[in-house]
Amino acid sequence: MMGDNLIVQFVIFLVNIVIVFPIWLTLLLPLTIAFSVYNRLKKHKQPLFLEIDSVATDLIPQQDRKYDVVIYGATGFTGKMACEYIAKQYPKLRWAIGGRSSSKLQEVVKHLSGIDSNLEKNLDIIIADSYNVEQLKKMVQNTKVVVSTVGPYTAYGNYLVALCCQYGTHYTDLTGELDWVKVIIEKYDSLAVKSGAQIVNTCGYDSIPFDLTTLYLNEQMNKQKNQRLKSVYGYCEQYLNASGGTLASVVYILTHKSSFVSKLGYDALLKNIGENTQSKSNFKFTFKFLVGYAKEFKKFFGLSVGMLGNGQIVKRSNALLHYHEDFRYGESVIHPNIFSAINTFLGILLLLPLLIVTPLKQTIGKLILPNPGEGPSQKEMDKGFLIFTAIGKGENGAELKAAFTMPTDPGYRDTARILAESGITLALNQDQIKVKGGFYTSASCQGNILLEKICQTGSTIQIVQ
Q: What is the pTM of this model?
Protein backbone atom coordinates (compact mmCIF):
# COMPACT_ATOMS: atom_id res chain seq x y z
CA MET A 1 0.00 0.00 0.00
CA MET A 2 2.77 2.42 0.97
CA GLY A 3 4.66 1.44 -2.15
CA ASP A 4 1.61 2.08 -4.34
CA ASN A 5 1.12 5.48 -2.71
CA LEU A 6 4.77 6.37 -3.28
CA ILE A 7 4.53 5.47 -6.97
CA VAL A 8 1.32 7.50 -7.41
CA GLN A 9 2.81 10.51 -5.65
CA PHE A 10 5.99 10.22 -7.73
CA VAL A 11 3.98 10.20 -10.98
CA ILE A 12 2.00 13.24 -9.81
CA PHE A 13 5.26 14.92 -8.84
CA LEU A 14 6.69 14.38 -12.34
CA VAL A 15 3.56 15.79 -13.96
CA ASN A 16 3.68 18.79 -11.63
CA ILE A 17 7.34 19.51 -12.27
CA VAL A 18 7.34 18.93 -16.04
CA ILE A 19 3.93 20.39 -16.97
CA VAL A 20 2.00 22.09 -14.17
CA PHE A 21 4.70 24.13 -12.43
CA PRO A 22 6.01 25.75 -15.66
CA ILE A 23 2.42 26.77 -16.55
CA TRP A 24 1.92 28.15 -13.05
CA LEU A 25 5.22 30.05 -13.13
CA THR A 26 4.83 31.59 -16.59
CA LEU A 27 1.06 32.15 -16.76
CA LEU A 28 -0.86 31.60 -13.53
CA LEU A 29 1.55 33.39 -11.18
CA PRO A 30 1.60 36.63 -13.22
CA LEU A 31 -2.21 36.49 -13.51
CA THR A 32 -2.56 35.91 -9.78
CA ILE A 33 -0.28 38.85 -8.97
CA ALA A 34 -2.10 41.11 -11.44
CA PHE A 35 -5.57 40.25 -10.13
CA SER A 36 -4.36 40.50 -6.52
CA VAL A 37 -3.07 44.02 -7.12
CA TYR A 38 -6.25 44.94 -9.01
CA ASN A 39 -8.51 43.60 -6.27
CA ARG A 40 -6.55 45.36 -3.55
CA LEU A 41 -6.66 48.69 -5.40
CA LYS A 42 -10.30 48.31 -6.41
CA LYS A 43 -12.74 50.23 -4.25
CA HIS A 44 -14.73 47.71 -2.24
CA LYS A 45 -17.62 48.43 0.05
CA GLN A 46 -15.94 48.76 3.44
CA PRO A 47 -17.30 46.88 6.47
CA LEU A 48 -19.38 49.03 8.80
CA PHE A 49 -18.79 49.30 12.54
CA LEU A 50 -21.06 50.39 15.36
CA GLU A 51 -19.52 53.20 17.37
CA ILE A 52 -20.54 52.08 20.85
CA ASP A 53 -18.69 52.81 24.08
CA SER A 54 -21.35 52.35 26.77
CA VAL A 55 -23.13 49.31 28.18
CA ALA A 56 -26.79 48.86 27.20
CA THR A 57 -29.34 50.30 29.63
CA ASP A 58 -31.79 47.48 28.86
CA LEU A 59 -29.28 44.73 29.65
CA ILE A 60 -30.84 41.57 31.10
CA PRO A 61 -28.77 39.82 33.81
CA GLN A 62 -27.20 36.61 32.51
CA GLN A 63 -29.12 34.40 34.95
CA ASP A 64 -32.45 35.80 33.73
CA ARG A 65 -31.91 35.24 30.02
CA LYS A 66 -34.13 32.90 28.05
CA TYR A 67 -31.40 30.97 26.24
CA ASP A 68 -28.07 29.49 27.22
CA VAL A 69 -26.81 29.48 23.62
CA VAL A 70 -27.90 30.75 20.21
CA ILE A 71 -26.28 29.18 17.14
CA TYR A 72 -26.11 32.03 14.63
CA GLY A 73 -25.65 30.77 11.09
CA ALA A 74 -27.46 27.50 11.73
CA THR A 75 -28.25 26.95 8.05
CA GLY A 76 -24.59 26.89 6.98
CA PHE A 77 -22.49 23.76 6.62
CA THR A 78 -20.70 23.92 9.98
CA GLY A 79 -23.54 25.68 11.79
CA LYS A 80 -25.94 22.87 10.96
CA MET A 81 -23.48 20.26 12.26
CA ALA A 82 -23.05 22.24 15.48
CA CYS A 83 -26.84 22.12 15.88
CA GLU A 84 -26.86 18.37 15.25
CA TYR A 85 -24.20 17.91 17.91
CA ILE A 86 -26.16 19.90 20.50
CA ALA A 87 -29.39 18.06 19.62
CA LYS A 88 -27.67 14.73 20.29
CA GLN A 89 -25.57 15.64 23.33
CA TYR A 90 -27.47 18.37 25.21
CA PRO A 91 -31.23 17.63 25.31
CA LYS A 92 -31.72 19.88 28.35
CA LEU A 93 -29.85 22.89 26.99
CA ARG A 94 -31.95 26.04 26.52
CA TRP A 95 -30.97 27.07 23.02
CA ALA A 96 -32.19 28.62 19.78
CA ILE A 97 -31.02 28.98 16.19
CA GLY A 98 -30.57 32.22 14.30
CA GLY A 99 -30.04 33.43 10.75
CA ARG A 100 -31.52 35.48 7.91
CA SER A 101 -33.87 33.01 6.24
CA SER A 102 -36.98 31.83 8.09
CA SER A 103 -37.67 29.05 5.59
CA LYS A 104 -34.12 27.67 5.79
CA LEU A 105 -34.17 27.81 9.58
CA GLN A 106 -37.49 25.92 9.57
CA GLU A 107 -35.83 23.24 7.47
CA VAL A 108 -33.07 22.96 10.08
CA VAL A 109 -35.66 22.57 12.87
CA LYS A 110 -37.39 19.85 10.87
CA HIS A 111 -34.08 18.07 10.36
CA LEU A 112 -33.14 18.34 14.05
CA SER A 113 -36.53 17.04 15.17
CA GLY A 114 -35.48 13.75 13.59
CA ILE A 115 -32.74 13.63 16.24
CA ASP A 116 -34.85 14.93 19.13
CA SER A 117 -38.61 15.14 18.50
CA ASN A 118 -39.01 17.73 21.29
CA LEU A 119 -37.12 20.27 19.20
CA GLU A 120 -39.98 20.58 16.70
CA LYS A 121 -41.94 22.57 19.30
CA ASN A 122 -39.23 23.73 21.69
CA LEU A 123 -36.45 25.02 19.43
CA ASP A 124 -37.00 28.71 18.77
CA ILE A 125 -36.01 30.48 15.56
CA ILE A 126 -34.53 33.99 15.65
CA ILE A 127 -34.46 36.03 12.44
CA ALA A 128 -31.44 38.32 12.47
CA ASP A 129 -29.62 39.86 9.53
CA SER A 130 -25.93 40.67 10.08
CA TYR A 131 -26.56 44.38 9.45
CA ASN A 132 -29.96 44.75 11.14
CA VAL A 133 -29.19 46.28 14.53
CA GLU A 134 -32.66 45.82 16.02
CA GLN A 135 -32.86 42.15 15.03
CA LEU A 136 -29.37 41.48 16.38
CA LYS A 137 -30.19 43.28 19.64
CA LYS A 138 -33.22 41.07 20.22
CA MET A 139 -31.02 38.03 19.69
CA VAL A 140 -28.04 38.96 21.86
CA GLN A 141 -29.89 40.52 24.81
CA ASN A 142 -31.75 37.33 25.76
CA THR A 143 -29.02 34.69 25.46
CA LYS A 144 -25.95 34.01 27.54
CA VAL A 145 -23.81 33.09 24.51
CA VAL A 146 -23.86 33.59 20.76
CA VAL A 147 -21.97 31.00 18.71
CA SER A 148 -21.44 32.45 15.24
CA THR A 149 -20.58 30.55 12.07
CA VAL A 150 -21.43 33.47 9.76
CA GLY A 151 -18.40 34.48 7.72
CA PRO A 152 -16.48 36.11 6.26
CA TYR A 153 -16.46 37.75 9.67
CA THR A 154 -14.76 40.87 8.35
CA ALA A 155 -17.90 41.46 6.28
CA TYR A 156 -20.63 40.06 8.54
CA GLY A 157 -19.33 39.95 12.11
CA ASN A 158 -18.82 43.57 13.19
CA TYR A 159 -22.32 44.51 14.36
CA LEU A 160 -22.80 41.21 16.16
CA VAL A 161 -19.56 41.46 18.14
CA ALA A 162 -20.23 45.11 19.03
CA LEU A 163 -23.70 44.30 20.34
CA CYS A 164 -22.46 41.28 22.30
CA CYS A 165 -19.94 43.60 23.95
CA GLN A 166 -22.66 46.16 24.68
CA TYR A 167 -25.11 43.63 26.16
CA GLY A 168 -22.62 41.52 28.13
CA THR A 169 -23.25 38.50 25.92
CA HIS A 170 -20.45 35.97 25.57
CA TYR A 171 -19.39 35.07 22.03
CA THR A 172 -17.44 32.42 20.12
CA ASP A 173 -16.79 31.93 16.42
CA LEU A 174 -14.80 30.08 13.76
CA THR A 175 -12.92 32.97 12.23
CA GLY A 176 -9.42 32.59 10.88
CA GLU A 177 -9.38 36.29 9.94
CA LEU A 178 -6.74 37.53 12.37
CA ASP A 179 -6.61 41.05 10.95
CA TRP A 180 -10.31 41.33 11.80
CA VAL A 181 -9.68 39.98 15.30
CA LYS A 182 -7.11 42.73 15.84
CA VAL A 183 -9.59 45.39 14.70
CA ILE A 184 -12.39 44.27 17.02
CA ILE A 185 -9.99 43.95 19.97
CA GLU A 186 -8.95 47.56 19.47
CA LYS A 187 -12.50 48.84 18.96
CA TYR A 188 -14.47 46.89 21.55
CA ASP A 189 -12.20 45.43 24.26
CA SER A 190 -12.89 48.23 26.75
CA LEU A 191 -16.65 47.85 26.16
CA ALA A 192 -16.45 44.08 26.72
CA VAL A 193 -14.65 44.72 30.01
CA LYS A 194 -17.41 47.10 31.12
CA SER A 195 -20.25 44.72 30.24
CA GLY A 196 -18.55 41.47 31.22
CA ALA A 197 -18.78 39.95 27.72
CA GLN A 198 -16.17 37.28 27.07
CA ILE A 199 -15.29 37.30 23.36
CA VAL A 200 -13.40 34.20 22.21
CA ASN A 201 -12.50 33.95 18.52
CA THR A 202 -11.11 31.02 16.48
CA CYS A 203 -12.85 28.20 18.36
CA GLY A 204 -12.68 25.46 15.73
CA TYR A 205 -9.88 23.56 14.04
CA ASP A 206 -8.42 27.04 13.83
CA SER A 207 -7.08 27.25 16.52
CA ILE A 208 -8.27 25.26 19.55
CA PRO A 209 -6.08 22.13 19.07
CA PHE A 210 -2.92 24.21 18.79
CA ASP A 211 -3.80 26.77 21.45
CA LEU A 212 -4.90 24.23 24.07
CA THR A 213 -1.98 21.89 23.37
CA THR A 214 0.39 24.78 24.04
CA LEU A 215 -1.48 25.53 27.28
CA TYR A 216 -1.22 21.85 28.26
CA LEU A 217 2.51 21.75 27.52
CA ASN A 218 3.07 24.89 29.57
CA GLU A 219 1.35 23.37 32.60
CA GLN A 220 3.15 20.04 32.24
CA MET A 221 6.52 21.78 31.83
CA ASN A 222 5.89 23.71 35.04
CA LYS A 223 4.66 20.63 36.87
CA GLN A 224 7.08 17.95 35.66
CA LYS A 225 10.23 19.94 34.94
CA ASN A 226 9.79 23.02 37.13
CA GLN A 227 10.56 25.21 34.12
CA ARG A 228 8.69 27.78 32.10
CA LEU A 229 7.76 26.80 28.57
CA LYS A 230 9.80 28.77 26.04
CA SER A 231 8.98 27.22 22.66
CA VAL A 232 6.61 24.85 20.88
CA TYR A 233 7.01 23.19 17.50
CA GLY A 234 4.25 20.89 16.34
CA TYR A 235 3.62 18.37 13.57
CA CYS A 236 0.15 17.64 12.17
CA GLU A 237 -0.83 14.24 10.81
CA GLN A 238 -4.26 14.87 9.37
CA TYR A 239 -6.90 14.36 6.74
CA LEU A 240 -9.38 17.18 6.10
CA ASN A 241 -11.24 19.04 3.36
CA ALA A 242 -12.40 22.59 2.68
CA SER A 243 -15.97 23.89 2.58
CA GLY A 244 -17.38 26.61 0.37
CA GLY A 245 -17.70 28.96 3.34
CA THR A 246 -14.03 28.59 4.21
CA LEU A 247 -12.97 29.27 0.64
CA ALA A 248 -15.28 32.31 0.49
CA SER A 249 -13.56 33.70 3.58
CA VAL A 250 -10.13 33.10 2.04
CA VAL A 251 -11.19 34.91 -1.15
CA TYR A 252 -12.51 37.84 0.87
CA ILE A 253 -9.25 38.19 2.81
CA LEU A 254 -7.14 37.99 -0.35
CA THR A 255 -9.19 40.47 -2.37
CA HIS A 256 -10.30 43.11 0.15
CA LYS A 257 -8.05 45.72 1.70
CA SER A 258 -9.30 47.16 4.97
CA SER A 259 -9.36 50.93 5.40
CA PHE A 260 -9.11 50.60 9.19
CA VAL A 261 -6.09 52.41 10.62
CA SER A 262 -4.93 51.28 14.05
CA LYS A 263 -4.27 53.93 16.67
CA LEU A 264 -2.69 51.61 19.21
CA GLY A 265 0.87 51.83 17.95
CA TYR A 266 1.41 48.12 18.64
CA ASP A 267 -0.06 44.73 17.73
CA ALA A 268 -3.58 44.48 19.17
CA LEU A 269 -2.95 40.80 19.97
CA LEU A 270 -0.54 42.05 22.64
CA LYS A 271 -3.11 44.40 24.20
CA ASN A 272 -3.68 43.87 27.90
CA ILE A 273 -7.33 43.31 28.77
CA GLY A 274 -9.10 46.59 29.48
CA GLU A 275 -5.94 48.67 29.25
CA ASN A 276 -4.25 50.73 26.56
CA THR A 277 -0.96 48.98 27.25
CA GLN A 278 0.77 46.05 25.61
CA SER A 279 2.10 42.86 27.10
CA LYS A 280 5.86 42.77 27.47
CA SER A 281 6.01 39.31 25.92
CA ASN A 282 8.12 38.88 22.81
CA PHE A 283 6.86 36.34 20.26
CA LYS A 284 8.57 34.88 17.20
CA PHE A 285 7.66 32.21 14.68
CA THR A 286 9.95 29.24 14.13
CA PHE A 287 10.16 28.61 10.40
CA LYS A 288 11.45 25.41 8.82
CA PHE A 289 11.96 24.56 5.17
CA LEU A 290 8.80 24.20 3.08
CA VAL A 291 9.70 20.52 2.72
CA GLY A 292 12.02 18.58 4.99
CA TYR A 293 12.64 15.50 7.12
CA ALA A 294 11.56 15.31 10.76
CA LYS A 295 14.06 13.15 12.63
CA GLU A 296 11.73 12.92 15.63
CA PHE A 297 9.12 11.12 13.52
CA LYS A 298 11.30 9.64 10.80
CA LYS A 299 8.87 11.17 8.32
CA PHE A 300 8.80 14.02 5.83
CA PHE A 301 7.05 17.28 6.59
CA GLY A 302 5.63 20.10 4.51
CA LEU A 303 4.08 23.53 4.78
CA SER A 304 1.32 24.16 7.32
CA VAL A 305 -1.03 26.78 5.87
CA GLY A 306 -2.54 27.28 9.32
CA MET A 307 0.69 28.07 11.15
CA LEU A 308 0.51 31.85 10.86
CA GLY A 309 -3.08 31.97 12.11
CA ASN A 310 -2.59 29.41 14.89
CA GLY A 311 0.65 31.08 15.89
CA GLN A 312 -1.02 34.46 16.28
CA ILE A 313 -3.61 32.94 18.59
CA VAL A 314 -0.82 31.35 20.64
CA LYS A 315 0.81 34.79 20.62
CA ARG A 316 -2.35 36.25 22.15
CA SER A 317 -2.50 33.47 24.75
CA ASN A 318 1.14 34.03 25.67
CA ALA A 319 0.49 37.76 26.04
CA LEU A 320 -2.35 37.05 28.50
CA LEU A 321 -1.02 33.95 30.28
CA HIS A 322 2.70 34.85 30.26
CA TYR A 323 4.20 31.50 29.28
CA HIS A 324 7.50 33.24 28.55
CA GLU A 325 8.62 36.74 27.61
CA ASP A 326 10.55 35.32 24.63
CA PHE A 327 8.20 32.67 23.23
CA ARG A 328 8.52 30.86 19.90
CA TYR A 329 5.99 28.78 17.96
CA GLY A 330 5.93 26.83 14.71
CA GLU A 331 4.23 23.89 13.01
CA SER A 332 4.44 21.66 9.95
CA VAL A 333 2.32 18.94 8.35
CA ILE A 334 3.56 15.34 8.24
CA HIS A 335 3.49 13.50 4.88
CA PRO A 336 4.04 9.81 4.02
CA ASN A 337 6.83 10.69 1.57
CA ILE A 338 8.69 13.65 0.12
CA PHE A 339 6.67 13.64 -3.10
CA SER A 340 3.42 14.01 -1.16
CA ALA A 341 4.86 17.02 0.68
CA ILE A 342 5.96 18.69 -2.57
CA ASN A 343 2.70 17.89 -4.38
CA THR A 344 0.64 19.36 -1.55
CA PHE A 345 2.65 22.57 -1.65
CA LEU A 346 2.23 22.81 -5.42
CA GLY A 347 -1.49 22.14 -4.98
CA ILE A 348 -1.73 25.16 -2.68
CA LEU A 349 0.03 27.27 -5.31
CA LEU A 350 -2.49 26.09 -7.92
CA LEU A 351 -5.45 26.82 -5.66
CA LEU A 352 -4.63 30.52 -5.34
CA PRO A 353 -5.32 31.38 -9.02
CA LEU A 354 -8.67 29.57 -8.80
CA LEU A 355 -9.61 31.80 -5.86
CA ILE A 356 -8.21 35.11 -7.09
CA VAL A 357 -8.20 35.21 -10.91
CA THR A 358 -11.82 36.08 -11.73
CA PRO A 359 -12.15 34.23 -15.08
CA LEU A 360 -10.66 31.07 -13.56
CA LYS A 361 -12.78 31.37 -10.42
CA GLN A 362 -15.97 31.74 -12.44
CA THR A 363 -15.21 28.81 -14.76
CA ILE A 364 -12.88 26.11 -13.43
CA GLY A 365 -13.39 27.17 -9.81
CA LYS A 366 -17.18 26.79 -10.05
CA LEU A 367 -16.77 23.30 -11.45
CA ILE A 368 -14.37 21.88 -8.87
CA LEU A 369 -14.68 24.01 -5.71
CA PRO A 370 -17.60 23.90 -3.25
CA ASN A 371 -20.00 26.84 -3.00
CA PRO A 372 -20.81 28.59 0.30
CA GLY A 373 -23.01 26.28 2.36
CA GLU A 374 -21.48 23.18 0.75
CA GLY A 375 -18.78 20.96 2.16
CA PRO A 376 -17.26 17.50 2.11
CA SER A 377 -19.49 14.42 2.01
CA GLN A 378 -20.14 12.24 5.05
CA LYS A 379 -17.91 9.60 3.48
CA GLU A 380 -15.06 12.08 3.09
CA MET A 381 -15.47 13.31 6.65
CA ASP A 382 -15.42 9.73 7.92
CA LYS A 383 -11.81 9.54 6.69
CA GLY A 384 -10.82 12.63 8.63
CA PHE A 385 -8.60 12.80 11.71
CA LEU A 386 -5.96 14.94 13.41
CA ILE A 387 -2.92 13.95 15.44
CA PHE A 388 -1.06 17.08 16.54
CA THR A 389 2.22 16.19 18.20
CA ALA A 390 3.95 19.18 19.75
CA ILE A 391 7.45 19.38 21.20
CA GLY A 392 7.76 21.88 24.01
CA LYS A 393 11.10 23.15 25.29
CA GLY A 394 11.67 24.76 28.66
CA GLU A 395 13.80 27.78 29.42
CA ASN A 396 16.54 25.56 30.87
CA GLY A 397 16.52 22.95 28.09
CA ALA A 398 13.95 20.43 29.33
CA GLU A 399 11.79 18.85 26.63
CA LEU A 400 8.29 17.37 26.64
CA LYS A 401 6.20 15.97 23.81
CA ALA A 402 2.39 16.11 23.85
CA ALA A 403 -0.12 14.61 21.41
CA PHE A 404 -3.63 15.99 20.84
CA THR A 405 -6.09 14.02 18.69
CA MET A 406 -9.41 14.54 16.94
CA PRO A 407 -11.05 11.25 15.90
CA THR A 408 -12.93 12.41 12.81
CA ASP A 409 -12.92 15.22 10.24
CA PRO A 410 -11.17 18.09 12.06
CA GLY A 411 -12.15 20.82 9.62
CA TYR A 412 -15.93 20.51 9.95
CA ARG A 413 -17.49 17.62 11.88
CA ASP A 414 -15.12 17.87 14.83
CA THR A 415 -14.89 21.64 14.48
CA ALA A 416 -18.67 21.68 15.04
CA ARG A 417 -18.16 19.62 18.21
CA ILE A 418 -15.44 21.77 19.75
CA LEU A 419 -17.15 25.02 18.69
CA ALA A 420 -20.37 23.91 20.38
CA GLU A 421 -18.48 22.84 23.51
CA SER A 422 -16.66 26.18 23.53
CA GLY A 423 -19.93 28.11 23.58
CA ILE A 424 -21.64 25.78 26.04
CA THR A 425 -18.69 26.10 28.42
CA LEU A 426 -19.13 29.88 28.42
CA ALA A 427 -22.84 29.43 29.14
CA LEU A 428 -22.79 26.72 31.81
CA ASN A 429 -19.38 26.88 33.48
CA GLN A 430 -18.97 30.54 34.46
CA ASP A 431 -18.41 29.52 38.08
CA GLN A 432 -15.17 27.83 36.95
CA ILE A 433 -13.98 30.47 34.48
CA LYS A 434 -11.59 32.83 36.25
CA VAL A 435 -11.58 35.78 33.84
CA LYS A 436 -14.10 38.57 33.40
CA GLY A 437 -15.05 40.55 30.30
CA GLY A 438 -12.64 41.11 27.41
CA PHE A 439 -11.20 39.55 24.26
CA TYR A 440 -9.59 36.18 24.89
CA THR A 441 -8.43 32.93 23.34
CA SER A 442 -9.71 29.48 24.25
CA ALA A 443 -6.56 28.89 26.33
CA SER A 444 -6.82 32.17 28.25
CA CYS A 445 -10.60 31.99 28.85
CA GLN A 446 -12.16 28.51 29.04
CA GLY A 447 -8.75 26.83 29.33
CA ASN A 448 -8.65 23.45 31.04
CA ILE A 449 -12.42 23.40 31.53
CA LEU A 450 -12.88 23.32 27.76
CA LEU A 451 -9.96 20.94 27.24
CA GLU A 452 -11.54 18.48 29.68
CA LYS A 453 -14.90 18.69 27.89
CA ILE A 454 -13.29 18.19 24.50
CA CYS A 455 -11.44 15.13 25.78
CA GLN A 456 -14.64 13.73 27.32
CA THR A 457 -16.38 13.93 23.94
CA GLY A 458 -13.83 12.38 21.58
CA SER A 459 -10.41 14.03 21.68
CA THR A 460 -7.37 12.95 23.68
CA ILE A 461 -4.29 14.75 24.97
CA GLN A 462 -1.31 13.25 26.74
CA ILE A 463 2.43 13.43 27.20
CA VAL A 464 4.13 10.92 24.89
CA GLN A 465 7.65 9.57 24.60
A: 0.95
